[in-house]
Amino acid sequence: MNGGQPTPGQTRPAGAPAPEATSVLLAGHDVPLGRYTTVRRLLPQRQRRMVGAWCFVDHFGPDDVTGRPGMQVPPHPHTGLQTVTWLLDGEILHRDSLGSYQPIRPGQLNVMTSGHGITHSEQSPPEHPPLMHGLQLWVALPDATRNGPPSFAHHAGLPVFTATDLTATVLVGEFDGVRSPAVGHTPLLAVQFDLPAGGTARLPVDRGFEHGLLVVSGSVEVDRVPVRPGSLLYLAPGRREISIQGTASATRLVLLGGEPFDESLVMWWNFVGRSHEEIVEARADWMSGRRFGPVVGDDDPPLPAPAMPAVRLKARDRHGHILG
């Protein structure tokens, strides 16, 4: 299956208009993060920019960081979004302009809400475990809350339950009657599932949600499509369940979901806004030391913003269509 192509069964009569694909396998691509880390970026992509309000999905590792610095991302700003960090191996220290100082370890969740503006840094401590592996996700904030005050929350424990062939950890939202303590601003879902070798599962889902499924270790088949680390399977709204077939190895996967996000966005660098002018203002504020504030306890030089592109930034809808 080629990345970005509809899954089997999506044929149509010659000359008929192409409907929106019910499922699309998206291949990620490698992107450097800071000086020492490379991530596989699964969203946004040309074929699919969002899953619900999830607008950015990075999968990093597993990397052997023995004798290496690990993750070293200096102070940088955000607007209009939440960052959701889920660690599978290793340790990362979060600091921000609110004064938060929070190590995150496997099984713990960090949720930072930028609102109108926040600065943070993410660093492996000097003495860190040998492996680093995890996810960093962005959630676009709706217009009603995107200019609100920033905040940070750390969840040291999350609800976990088991069923036949399945262990589920609810990161965000509610799954099968079990709710995460993490606070969201639109209807969202994020669940980690652990499936033994050869296991199967039928996951009940909200038919009004669109979903994205990514594998962090092992592999599964969904709709006869193999999903392995490095890709994301997009599933359009309308499903009541998702059937998963395990393969010869144990698998760990994450299901993201949410109501389709119908507000247009301009995403550039670390900012999520609604217009070119908003992005220009955010960049100018960052470069001049306004709005965002320093990261408390981090003396590293802040990350400079890249130059604005020569063309005007256009707002796009969740399908990637340019508006206006």
Low-confidence stretches: 1-19
> N-to-C SSE series?
EEEEEEEEEEEEEEEEEEEEEEEEEEH
Can you tell me the CATH architecture? Sandwich
Distance between the termini: 35 Å
Count every beta strand, where a strand is a DSSP E run of 2 or more residues: 26
Total domains, how many? 1
Helix content: under 10%
Largest sheet: 9 strands, antiparallel
Tell the overall outline: globular
- Average residue-wise pLDDT: 92
CATH superfamily: Jelly Rolls
Number of helices: 1
For the record, the CATH class is Mainly Beta
CATH topology: Jelly Rolls
Cα Rg: 19 Å
Strand content bin: over 45%
User: Helix- and strand-based class?
Assistant: mainly beta
Domain Pirin N-terminal: 38-139
Cofactor: Fe cation
Family: Belongs to the pirin family.
Binding site for Fe cation: 76, 78, 120, 122
Structure report:
This is Pirin. InterPro entries: Pirin, Pirin_C_dom, Pirin_N_dom, RmlC-like_jellyroll, RmlC_Cupin_sf. This protein is mostly beta strands and 324 residues long. The protein has one domain (23-258): Jelly Rolls (Sandwich). Helices cover 4% and strands 46% of the residues. It has one helix at 276-288; strands at residues 5-6, 23-27, 29-33, 37-43, 54-64, 72-78, 81-89, 92-96, 101-104, 109-113, 118-123, 131-140, 151-155, 160-163, 166-175, 178-179, 188-195, 200-204, 210-217, 220-222, 225-227, 231-235, 241-246, 251-258, 266-268, 271-273. The strands form five sheets. Strands 1, 2, 14, 15, 16, 17, 19, 22 and 24 form a nine-stranded antiparallel sheet that branches.
